[in-house]
## 1
Amino acid sequence: MDGTAVVVGGGIGGLAAAIGLRRIGWDVTVVERARVLADVGAGISLHANGIRALDVLGIGEAVRAAARPQYTGGTRTPGGSLLARMDGAALERELGTPIVGIPRAVLHRLLREALPPGSLLIGTEVTSVDRSGPGRVRVPVKDGVLDADLVVAADGVDSRLRGQLFPGHPGPVHSGSTVVRAITEHPVLLRTDFELTWGWGAEFGHIAFTDGRAEWHAVFNSPPGTRHADALAAMRRRFGGWHDPIPALLDATRPDAVLHHDIHELATPLPAVAEGRIVLVGDAAHAMTPNLGQGACQALEDAVTLAAALAGEPTVDSALARYDTERRPRSQSVARAARQAGRMGQQLTHPLAVALRNTALRLAPSRVTVRAILRHADWSPPSLG
């Protein structure tokens, strides 16, 4: 089965969905509201399930070449004491690949380059779709209307198309945390590929890149909408006394490179991720907290599963029913696990609870950490035929 699709949203999930649909013979247009593709953003870790999805999409090798494997790392206290060690080699033995770190902008560029010129319309916002016609969907854009057999809603956590499909759903809610992050301006001497540090209601982490630079992020409990006139200075005040290399990471960062976003999630699961000829992928379907590093990986799983369903089913309707059956339970389970990981990790503030958590982490053998990652990363993608 082939057809015509409009993908609303040119982020990781939307571009991956477009690549998957094109690989099964569909004609695809991606509509992105941003007027300029500035390739901004911080860093991202990709687990084995995300890498496997990228392999099916045909760009896994390009991503591996641009990414840095995460063999060394772990979780520490603000004073630098090791709580748990990450065994990237063990993960590679189990899954065939370690976790890798890559600038989000590089991943986005590689996805975009896998699409033909002209398939991406930028500076075009889609706020609703018309489903009145039988078997077709009309997508109003600034220069007219796009007719499609399918609309892929990849318009993020604040998805307007999700709101149109499920007007009674409460939508995203604030998780209780906010994130400040950046990529360093120049290389930083790091002892590990990846690291998290857990304090009281706060986390600081880094991801090392191939060129020696690094992404750092600070996640901490905060009311929504709280902002700082100088976010970098605020991070120095809060985290500057934590262990090395945290001060060095902050010192290697330009103030104008710092991003600050509140973390929102779909705490109330959706009753479906497809309705009529509209299907949700990525954050539009299952926005989750970043505590498992699975947000982008789940979006990549969505893209491959959607393409496989459309390639294997006789009708769009049956394909979307299959997609919903395969994706909704898994993605919502991962979202629940991410929420729980945050509550037991970064969000903990009570001294006794923090002490008990730290003791449990110190006593747990390394294979426990490996099994926890395998629980979500060991996913086998479907074939596109």
## 2
Amino acid sequence: MNLYKIGGSKIFIGTRVALPTDLIVELADFVPQEPEWLPINGWTNAGALGDAREAITQNFIDADRTLTIGGTMNSAEMPNVFAPLPNDPGQIRLLQAMAGCANYAFKVEWGAGCVSESVVTISVASPGVITWPGGHALEPNSPVVFTPNSGTLPTGLVAGTVYYVREAGLTPTTFTVSASPGGAAIATTAAGTATTITATASPAGQTDLFYGLAMSRVKNGGEANTAQMLNASIKPNTNIIEI
């Protein structure tokens, strides 16, 4: 069991998106967002994020009791506070989202200050095995990104793409990866040309992805020694994917 602090967390805004007709998003829906994410900087207070089931109640005379059953899923608005940064690209896009009526893609990396990073080696094999010297302490389904230095990754892997640690074959210093949580292992078919490869991994279950609306744009008041901040709420309109 691990505990993660809120400090070091990051929030990102992607592009405008069309809501799926069933209001259900999958991990694949966020692959096109990988080169589009902009961090919204100046984040000083994070609101709660998650789904809650609406309660349906019925009163029974003969039992002198109210019965509750589960209704539809709904996400409360996520209130956030930012220090105003007029030139920050992420805040500029967030304000644009508030001015319109379109849904945007959002990503929250909780406890991003706990990200692990190391130079690794990747074998050419089926599956390709990543060796992390000194131990990685990663759990199954932890998202990991590979960055080559002065060259390319082994064939089968793409720089900057998010992969996921597989439970099969996981050891303290080695692991294989898949394109989706719990997916098939990725094989590497030819050696890359990079002089070194850096792996960057976030804790499993600490990244949330969803489509939603940027709802409000409010500047707080206060007494003389109160800093003026930007209060911005984000309302998820789909399920929230946790990876």
## 3
Amino acid sequence: MPVTAVGDESRAETVLSAEDVDAFAEITGDDNPIHLDEAYAGETMFGGRIAHGVLSTGVISAAMADLPGDVIYLSQDLRFENPVRLGDRVVATATVEEELGGDRIRVETVARVPDRDEVVISGEATALSTPHED
């Protein structure tokens, strides 16, 4: 049986800065100018730099980590719905929707930018949920 129960929910949030985006690009090698070059990005449909979508999923991962027990990702389906702009506060929630049998759970994952009342990422994860070992 998983440690988490249907209805358990956790939350995480962060503000994604230009420094965060620059560091992520340096670490991963993802140097797409839409993320790094203000002049270039200003001419695109976004009108300025945006954060890497995958960087924003890290906030979802933090919310998953705050569910009861040890939660280990098995899979994650994502839909990138709106851009995250530099300086946006991203708030993610992870809500356990279903026990799948054994130690597996299905979790609804959502990241929002509350200042614009926008969902930026939605999706669903499958994870293992086991007791936390000290």
## 4
Amino acid sequence: MTDAQQEQDAAPQAGARFAWTRRHTLTVVVICAALILDTIDISIMNVALPPIKSELGFTEAGLSWVVNGYLVTFGGFLLLCGRIGDILGHRRMLIAGLVLFAASSLAAGLAPNAETLIVMRAVQGCGAALISPMTLALLARIFPEGPRAKAIAAWGMAAGLSGILGLVLGGLLTIGPGWRWIFLINVPISALVIAGVLLWIARDHRPARRTQRFDLTGAVLSTAGVTLLTIGIVQSSQTGWTSPTTLLPLIVGLALLAAFTLHEARAKDPLLPFTLLKIPNVAGANVTQALVGGGMFAILYIATLYQQEVLHYNPLQTGLGSRDPRAATSSTSSARPSSSASAWP
């Protein structure tokens, strides 16, 4: 470890005078780039769904798993991966997550069929679950209280902008080299981020706390419960809410989440300490985030399909939220009046 790296890690110590240097700026850039890889892969997929559906032969219900496969494993393993980083080291686990993310992106970009793509999207979500909590933990480790607010503000801004950037970049890649490059482009970018982590972020120097447990049971229960609930909701669009293929996964999913709640209440090292939820600000923030996230992801999925399959936008126009006026004359759907497209903002 270099002297500069030792100084960087020593910054948060009590009484230490902190001086923001070029190294700290590069550290924030690298960490934000790692976070953007995670968050951009949620929105970047939406504009490419119609060509993916056409080329790989997805059904309507199966197509939703191109998005849900990523989100379910990302959300399900987020708590567990955060604990793994606390025990094994945040920098080490950030690199591991980036490697897993890059490898699964390569496999997804080369996927020969729908099943392979869905599986690789789920593996991508696991890599993202390793990356995201490590980025925030590293900012907390490197920066003391005052400068930490500045670094976390940049982190939050990167997460917000990546949603918009994902729609535009997804449109450009889809109408350009093709939808597969939405995944393949992650490989060189991940390599650059890994190089930045190795150059600008100091090694994990604290000894691992072996007394803590991973709480694998909690992670399996929560992930399986959320997955089954999602399957039930997706099935409802095809078979109805009263069908056994809808009710069974919904009931089992709710039962697993109930078991997760009981397990966490008794666990020595729970993934989700319920004492946190007793703090009004924490509980309110989580409820708000759940409502905002649920609404945003749903509208992104529905709106992008509507724009392309009903209004006949191309992927770039969908990402930009605007349409070339000449597209109305080239539409193959003569039954659709041109005014319906112009009514879309």
